[in-house]
## 1
Amino acid sequence: MAKPTVHDIAREAGVSLATVDRVLNGRPGVRANTIERVNDAVRSLGYVRDTYAANLARKTQYRFAFVLPDGDSQFVDTLKLALKEAMAAQLADRVFVKVVPVQVQDPHSVVRALNSLSAEHYDGVAIMAPETPQVRDAVARLKEAGLSVVALVSDLPTSGRDHFVGINNLSAGRTAGDLMGRFVGAIPGKVLIVTNSMLSRDSIERRLGFDEVMSERFDHLTILPTIESRGDPARMEAILLKAALAHPDLRGVYSMGPGNRPLIGALRRSGRIAELTVIVHELTPLTHQGLIDYEVDAVITQNVGHLVRSAMRVLRAKCDGVAIYEAQERIRIDIVLKENLPT
Amino acid sequence: MAKPTVHDIAREAGVSLATVDRVLNGRPGVRANTIERVNDAVRSLGYVRDTYAANLARKTQYRFAFVLPDGDSQFVDTLKLALKEAMAAQLADRVFVKVVPVQVQDPHSVVRALNSLSAEHYDGVAIMAPETPQVRDAVARLKEAGLSVVALVSDLPTSGRDHFVGINNLSAGRTAGDLMGRFVGAIPGKVLIVTNSMLSRDSIERRLGFDEVMSERFDHLTILPTIESRGDPARMEAILLKAALAHPDLRGVYSMGPGNRPLIGALRRSGRIAELTVIVHELTPLTHQGLIDYEVDAVITQNVGHLVRSAMRVLRAKCDGVAIYEAQERIRIDIVLKENLPT
DNA sequence: CATAAAATGAGGTACGCACCTCAGAAATCC
DNA sequence: GGATTTCTGAGGTGCGTACCTCATTTTATG
């Protein structure tokens, strides 16, 4: 009835504690036959290793690196803040976290950072960086070296990462489309989409989802050509202002990525921000204030606290070789309006 | 640099291990003066008890009771399901949970259940039940007996409960109002509110929030007198059907509590469900399907997984006498549309 | 000041596990 | 069948904590 321990397994399998230990920890010196006996006992008794006792005995720490974009992104800042909080809370749980800042626009910077993470100093890595062939290779190398790797916010499929912690961007785009269509209402008009770059996988997926919903359910709205800022706020602001003034029947603006500051600035300058339905991504101090001021109508976001905690849980589980609790690790797409802003 | 242990504290405070232990575990036989010295050492070294090692040594289980409404509420069912999953995941963490079903409409049933929970068999209790004087007293008794108590979903203020795990219902109502106003659009019309009973604290608060937002921002919409089902589905269905047919300019329906099945049934029968903006609470199989079928426009919900996990974390923290990590325990108000339904 | 009472120290055991050593048993090889 | 190699058992130690006992010191009490 009580939780089975290694002693119970030893008894059940008719072997000694030492042998159970060898099997459980993959140490050599056990006949295949005996290994089977032990594993059978584990299964039949439903033994699960007490990871806390194990860590206590092993006196290890989990050493994780979080590779995050450097620079002044409010989203990354809130992410870092959440990470800091989580670290404080997890300190008791033998988790050591190091933040590694990288210049995400430069794949070499990312690769250099990843290559600097050896299995000697780290047990796992969480990476938030755009998908490039170089990064994929570097991740594969980390995996090979025995590190656990999770992709954070932005997925790195085919890189061999253990897990992706983040939202489904197709659904995020569809959600934005749903809200846009409903908020704008039945009157025909135009919708503007802005992004940093249409090359990133996230933007492509969000755009795809948005388009799907618009054509399925709101075809009285016309989508204008996408505005790409390419990381240049001034450029973004200028083009946006021009577009806002050029289309008197513009009804809504959907911003798919970072760069909400120049967006809001331009819309304000155009004098039309109040009448437009503005939907952006990621809840940050800026977008939070935007909601309060009725300048932003909806924010589609992912809870940064959940992101970092999920990343840590998954990394720990991978290190322990334990199955993850899927339902808990699914990051939801949050819709935030003025009224349900978290307090 | 390394994590301080009880040994470090003993050395720092200039006392023996036994004394540190007495202080940390509140055992008697230590002079006030000495207690202070130990506590100072704890503070200055930043000692945090390793709860896992502690539990290992204490070889206790956390024994929690979840007092939940009996009967066929889909919301409670999903809550129970989440509880079951959480139990499976927490089994490794020495948590034992017992579900105690009660007839919530009968305060005596609740009180009887609560009184049956002795400190001998339980360390903490999570309660989901309406607030009545009898229940308040029973909770106070539990606290007195040394149990940790959290109110779940529905708060029990002034009962002395340690914590409330659930959403802010005023904000939930405001959020519903915000969505209703935006989804319905600029055309004047009427809005219907239905609930089980306007006597429950939750309904009152949601209604208050909804009204606030409607009068602040959407005063072209008129709110019809509230329909109360009083737990009678047939009655609800009949009144609702009548109301839906009596007001051709009805634009939206807001359901504040349980009883979504007769609601949707009546609206379907009225033939107007597609044109109405329907906003309900709690994501269940029924409302999930309603979103998919375009019968329900938005669901305002709280994540049951978070609810139970938060309740467990809080109960554990209270039992350990450890501070809770506020940010993680704040239950958000989730807005679910067809497009961001969790997969 | 003697004595009882309270406070403290020293030390042990246990929890479930990892990791180590060494001796002895079993299997394999020539 | 003896020598060698491969397995296995018995046992110990330590991780950070709880909880227990028993002696000893300190403090309060009459």
Note: Residues 3, 5-7, 18, 21, 24-25, 27, 31, 49-59 of chain B lie near DNA strand D (CB under 10 Å from a C1').
## 2
Amino acid sequence: MPELPEVEVTRLGVAPHLEGRPVRAVVLRREGLRWPFPAELPQLLAGRTVLSTGRRGKYLLIEFEHGTLIVHLGMSGHLRVLPPDIPADKHDHFDLVVEGPQGREVLRMTDPRRFGAVLWHPNEDGELDEHMLLRGLGVEPLGPAFTGALLYRQTRTRSAAVKQVLMAGDIVVGVGNIYCSESLFRAGINPKTAANRISPARYDRLAQCIREVLAEAIVQGGSTLRDFISVNGQSGYFQQSYFVYDRAGVPCRICGAPVRQIKQGQRSTFYCVNCQK
DNA sequence: CACGGAGCCTGCCCGC
DNA sequence: TGCGGGCAGGCTCCGT
């Protein structure tokens, strides 16, 4: 489910329920997901107050005085805020129980495919950016460092297809499979183009399009925040209509040519041969 | 260093 | 109705 916009919308949704609130309990219902949960999390967090929330790429950060809880939703994960005493379902793996003004609330992580992760980074281990999972990540696509010039500079040695280079995450983070196809469409760039054969001007355009596509998705997600915090909430689902993603064979919204679907690095790519050169 | 493929998991949808 | 194959919004690891 989550690409960067979904993670950011999740952060915006859970932040008011977490920030400034003390943790009453941590519930771990399995050993771990992609990696083992830190078994000492309950003792580490009980009684501690959440200072703030953050995000790095698709990693959600829950910051405490003594360290940071790092949450990744993988392919199929989502978070909800629930009233206390809602029984856990089959794929509910992790709860953070916090004390709110109206009583306790439960931040619950659900992840059927279990590609997600919950990790702890103690401040004493040094800068969060140096954490194994976060080091080597590219720049934030919505931050000031992300420019066409950066894309151009960082792709001089990259002969792989631009779609795969963008998705690799070492130049820019958070551009997942959906929004990568959408951004390349908006920029008019064929996803198969070798990254080192794209001009600075076209990279300027691409950087702008990536920013726009992600920012618009966050705004759209934000408008559905009302539904986000609910027992049945399908958080992070946007009823937005894509230009190319998941539209194989359907007429391009711009030129009417059928949208094409190909495989790049085992992932589906959607594009318009007419609009993207 | 950079590239491509395998693998991690469950659920769902399709065709037989 | 059951079964197998393919697919799914991410990421790491490994061989070349």
Note: Chain A has two domains: 4-130, 148-271.
